[in-house]
Sequence to fold (352 residues):
Amino acid sequence: MKVILFTIALNAALLAGTPTRADTIYVSNGNGWNNIQKFTTNGVSTYFVGNPSQTNAYFEFPWGIAFDSAGNLFVASHDDNKIEKITPDGVASVFATNGLNAPADITFDSTGNLFVSNYGDRTIEKFTPGGMGSLFAVNDPTYPASGLACDAQGNVFATTAWINTIKQFTSNGIPSVFASGGLLNGPIGLAFDASGNLFVANYFGSVAKFTTNGVGSTFATDGLYTPGGIAFDSLGNLYVANEGNADFSSGSIEIFTSAGAPSVYADVDNPFDFAITPGLHVFPPKLEIKSSGTNAVVSWPVSLGMFSLEATTILNNPNWNPVSGTNFLTNGRFLTTNGMTGSSRFFRLRKH
Fold:
């Protein structure tokens, strides 16, 4: 039996070989700047929507930003209570207004539902891909949620900076306390790495890391002042938005390797949040395949929960078909067992 391994990126390009980075980083600048900046691989910046003179902005105080699976950028417009949807070409439209009260952070789950933290009434709203909204949960009777993130299992995590707490909500909105006090000091931004560890930006100058078992540690402090939004690129580097000094007249983006080594990525206006879209990357495959009798046991990281497994028996004019069977979760990876037919089979991951 011959097993050949391939993985496919968002644009179905082949991934293999030496790591490189070609992500595009989008940054929301709030507090009157009202624009979204776009950074290329080399840190070259342009204004994706809005401009420095604030004469062409689609929103008032953009806060949370996130991409859907089709590459559309969603923006929480904090001061005018709406969510904007911006196509890859920069065409904007209003996605939602109902149920919004000073929307702050936003995040998508793996099925395309959008979650929005309402700073004005302490609730979390849920919107289907079609834009139908409903109340998902009340974050706290007194304090609003600052940051949001979804894990691969569909749980929603929310920070409450005022009381140094992170809550975990099931997909049905049932709350529990994930962490409180201790390492938390004004928690705002949330992001999961590829292994399912949760990272938290503390507004008073640090980033904390919590394992999948809830064990916490300090990940970084160097170069951090008023950190807010955080996000990972496809190679595991963590980007942190330093919102700015006391009058919000300047800010910066810090970047940390997986080992915690810091560097300044760029100086920006007043960064609040990130959305990172991967370009073509060349890096070690994320699929792992082992032979077990006449079966191929295939696994991939939980961070790729929005991808599905496909297979074909030929690469010359291939006919890719979804791999059937249950995906079990083990040790931070999805796992499936697939019967082999013929002399070889090729596998790939494709974005939903």
